[in-house]
Write a structure and sequence with these properties.
Blueprint: H1 4-12, H2 23-28, H3 46-67
Helix pairs in contact: 1-3
């Protein structure tokens, strides 16, 4: 459940072929803001480091899965 907002963000900020823009841009009239990738080993607390690394890994997995072609 905690990753659903990230999946929603990625979906809403990804270009869609049916509209030729992102859902976010369709709604707000401007390109969506981008998230910066976390630079490893820059957090001062290990718990924060672990969470940010896990978030980057999950975002990449979501991206990979959403662009993966369907199995026939």
């Amino acid at each position: 459940m905690k990753w659903i907002p990230w999946a929603q963000y990625w979906y809403n900020t990804t270009w869609h072929s049916s509209t030729n823009i992102t859902p976010s841009q369709a709604l707000y009239g401007r390109p969506p803001p981008t998230l910066l990738s976390y630079i490893p080993n820059t957090a001062k607390l290990q718990a924060v480091e672990d969470e940010l690394v896990a978030t980057d890994i999950t975002l990449q997995l979501l991206k990979d899965n959403l662009v993966k072609p369907e199995k026939e």
